[in-house]
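Page 47, continued from p. 46.
Same chain as before, 525 aa.
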Amino acid sequence: MEDNRTVFYAAPSSSAAAKTASLLLIDARRSPMMVSLNGTMTLGRERPGSTAQLRVVSEIASTRHGEFYYDAPTDSFYYANFSETNGTYINGRKMISANGQHPAPYRLADGDVLRIDRRTLKEPHPQAVLMVFSRNFKADEKWKSVNPDSTALITIGRSKNNVIHINDMTASRQHAEIRRTPQGMFIFDNNSQNGVFVNAVRINGSAQLFDHDVIRIANTTLVILDNRILYNNPGESAGALAVNIRSVKVDNGRRTLLRDISFTVDNNDFVLILGGSGAGKTTLINSILGKIDADADILLDGQNLKQDPDYMHAMIGLVPQFIDLRLEDKVYNTLRDLADIKLDSRHYDKQEKDQRVLDVMDKVGITALKDHYLKQLSGGQKKKTSVAAQLIGFQRVFICDEPDSGLDAASREQQMSIFKGITEHIGEMANSSKIVMVISHEPDDAINPDTHQTLFTKVLVIAKSAKDGSGHLAFFGTPQAALSYFNVNRLQDIMKEINPLHEGGKGLADYYIDRQYAEGGRHVQ
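Result:
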């Protein structure tokens, strides 16, 4: 580390065209490096004649240890492990071989921690390799370091008097503290609003820290390395949401509503959800929101939200089809009351709540309506206010259930532009980009008026199988790939392909479900 910045590791370029992601990589050189992933890149030990694109200095890494690759149709990065000697751990779990074959490739989510190490992770091998995956790290990401020996207590939080100051409104003022004791180093959660995570697991009060541990506080990543704590400070931003629904059953397990739904969406993604009547769109939404019991893993930045319902509700917001705000209240008062509910007074003072409301109103475009009663607003203005109500509490994922219903074409286009804006870096909330997922029956109205291109970045299609009556994943990928996959010219025409004959469709749901299983089989986690 030089001047509190990481060294940028310029890996040889890949011929495969792909979006980029990054690794924070630490090997035996003990100097953090930011590695840019682009296309397919092999990971291996540094040695003469090595052909690996990502070469690490470590005697326990194999010459061809693993491989990172990008899958364009799903816009996802995967890691495949090739080493049978020391292997690779992901979030503390070793990738296990099955039937003499290499472990199945792992779909990477923002914040995943990869380790090449010996079995006892609490005592890392001197030449262990640590990698933190992110699609939000930047090549010139600035990292700072603190030496725990130089202070008896390391405080972490939003207040400027902390040893580690986090400029991020999703962090509490006095979020956590790290203490060195005769028994070792410990981190303590000071009853923060959004918790402390160590190696992708939320701690309960406190946890002991070991070398190579990775801590997540709000959107800041901290790494324990030797006698240092390395950390970045990206501010408020969203990371990847990984959904893996194995099944959703009702009637005491006799009927399965959803089966094998797996996808990952990233920061800035605007996702269209398509599915016929009874395919399971509402069940999918309720599974992600934790409203129904599902055999599933719902991960945000690698944190399993199903294990922490309070955190799930704080991070994922639902924009309902029908407004449920009090129509007799003024817009500003409505949002300010919500700020009191959603922003704990232990962590946010009156001035911070007032400013949050003003920032959100400006972002959504309703500042001029601040003194209007909700009953005076048009349908579109009410929906904007509903969006603002969700933004108040720092949710990072928004699910919108037919928000364009009952609107004319022009209003639908405007409404979708608002949601698209939430996913982007805008105005005073420059680092507040989100993930937005929308159920819509008029998806082709979500068009950029200047480029005439769709506003959506991903399309998720659920189809109901005639074989088992369950909803399955029929497609997940970019809009362009979706049009090609279903051989249609418009997104809404996808429904004609998968709807049954008695609903005016072609009845091809099982064809596309089977095709998705066949083409996606190599990506099973």
